[in-house]
Design brief:
The protein is mainly alpha-helical. The protein has one domain (about 5-55). The chain has two helices and no strands. It has helices at about 5-25, 30-55. Helix 1 runs antiparallel to helix 2. The radius of gyration is 14 Å and the shape is rod-shaped.
Length: about 60
């Protein structure tokens, strides 16, 4: 695993927690913020996965 994969997965997990907290607390702004953070983490992790795949194919 490279650092982009790790950082992305951590950010994704934090976003999921924040999104769930927003649902429980009925705080729409926190829910949206968590959703954005979760999706940003997915993109970072995907970028890290792509880098790993390219690295392995070379």
């Amino acid at each position: 695993m490279n650092k982009d994969q790790v950082k992305g997965r951590i950010e994704e997990a934090k976003g999921k927690v924040k999104e769930a907290a927003g649902v429980v607390l009925d705080d729409k702004s926190m829910e949206v913020e968590g959703n954005i953070e979760k999706n940003t983490g997915k993109v970072k992790a995907g970028f890290g996965d792509l880098k790993e795949d390219i690295k392995k194919s070379i």
